[in-house]
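Re: the pair you flagged

First of the two:
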Amino acid sequence: MDISIGIGKSGRRGFGFDDISVVPSRRTRDPDDVNLSWELDGYRFELPMLGSAMDSAVSPATAVAIGRLGGLGVLNLEGLWARYQDPEPVFEEVATLPADRATARLQELYRAPIDPDLMRQRISDIKSAGVVAAASLTPQSVERYIDGVVEAGLDVLVIQGTVVSAEHVSSRDDPLDLSSFIAGLDLPVIVGGCASYAGAIHLMRTGAAGILVGVGPGAACTTRRVLGMGVPQATAIADAAGARIRYLAEAGRYVHVIADGGMSTGGDIAKAIACGADAVMIGSPLASAVEAPGQGAHWGMATYHPSVPRGTRVMTGQLGTLEQILVGPARENDGRQNLFGALRLAMASTGYADLKEFHKAELVVAPSVRTEGKALQRSQRVGMGS
């Protein structure tokens, strides 16, 4: 139902993860009987997750580690790994920058030119480790670099920007024709982000295997403040899931909805799947791993934009190993470790056997879900009050 903003404007109420909760059903299941796997164009993954294409979260080494744990790490092919033969000193510097210098210095560091040979080397390093090699390019650059990275063994391409549309209009140059471009590739392509029903269904019609849903929810993202746009994730995912239903009826082809950003706990991931996501793309949880290249610091692809930066460097700290964060065991009670063990238990506790079944879960709008009965935790800053 539309809400009146004023005489000349109305708008829908949007919901984020903190506004909703999953309702237990009439049955429960043994967690060992829950299947978390998903398939993308013939590739099977035991965890429904992608590591976000952020330099602080995914390196060639962590992409391999994520793959061995059952997920898919996505390397940013326009980031530090493609600009510096040895980026370790750059990561060390960024992790120690004072907050008031971080953005300007990141802009300087990312002025180093992209080296296509390094792109190919990084893909080859991931591929040679025996895991699926996935990497991202922006719409502006993908045609320039695609031949080299495909030749190097790229398995999954992610075309990613703050907002990617199927209908980019420009009076200055010829924009990327997503439909023609994807049709000419012999590998699955994921595109995004988007945050609306219309944006989602038009991206599905390009032939993409999956779409990224999320504009502005990430831990390091400032898009919602800088540009004034975005949709809370629960609503954005549910709208995209509705587009998926229509497109499946229209074309007979299932396109994966991938929730991108805004998830820091197992509960957030469970809610994303219950809203209709097939998988999630996470960044800040991975950046908090001891193996992460960012060394406890985290920033996104738009943080270092040369003229309109739309992100900030945040400090995640180091919460545990990559394995602890993804599959446990958890040593803390705040939901930031064993993310997919938590998803498995959430599905078991609400009676759902696999991801597509979990899409049918009942949701309740519950703004008090984080505070109800938690006065002692809040006053002592422990558990859900920390």
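Second of the two:
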Amino acid sequence: MTHAAKTPPKRLVGCELIDLAARSPAAFVDVCEKRYHDRLDRVVETALERKVQIIMLTGPSAAGKTTTAHKLAERIAARGMRSAVMSLDDFFVGEGRYPKQPDGSDDYECVEALDLPVLRSCLASLARTGRCEAPIFSFLSQRPTGETRTVDARGGIAVVEGLHAFNPALQVDALPAGTALHLYAGLREEYAAPDGARVLATRDIRLARRLTRDFLFRGHDADFTLGLWPHVCASEDKYIKAFKNRADLVIDTSFSYEVCLWEHYTQQMHAEAHARRLRDLCARFAAFPPLGGTVVPADSMLREFIGQKTGDTDKK
């Protein structure tokens, strides 16, 4: 199988343009949200034109893979076709079976942390019949539950999302030609000062997304997330970006207005071990006009990180 898609270059947006657009917050948000929805529609149109049965979706941490997968499935269903989402996280082998890192700790990031025989069987079944019985994993007990759920995309498309969706170990290339489309989700927008110097990179924005989600909904303080971030980035380089050239399509999950959101959330956090890193990140976002979470539509992909709209205090 040949994957010929080229990753579009990152866009460098001037901070002064963000300042200007933020003077009309509702219109600014609407334009950004519509652009994302248009990108989703183009992916669905391509998948339908190619008559694929599976979309393999990957991307780095906090790129919005999960929400993007479900929004693609919704759009496929809106065309009158069956759709389903299957997460690779449900294929973890579980505590006691994880491969070990050199220091003896469990390695959750490597592809061997997934039950590859079961996963390959599910993918083959989706290609052959459009349905499969996928395992259900309990993150509370860190083990498979022993139960399954039916993933039914007969006559339609199954969206399979996760860290290792592009990894050749899944043997997607062994499926009949034309079965799968490889889709890479990532931010393509960075921001520059009036002199052209880059002030915000995509990795900074993804870190702000993850910090906010971890702080609000996962019980992790800023020190925890900032301490883990270098390992997260190293894993992305090793397990995602190494296979990025397998992408058939790239979907941009940037929202220009979100740079106006993250000061509101990051300034609520406290760090000791990584205080300087947190201060630096907050300062980068302080350069933009502030917008609160209430401007974010209830169905926005960004709700994956800030939760549901309930006024000034957002909840999952």
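DSSP finds nine helices and ten strands in the chain.

-B.
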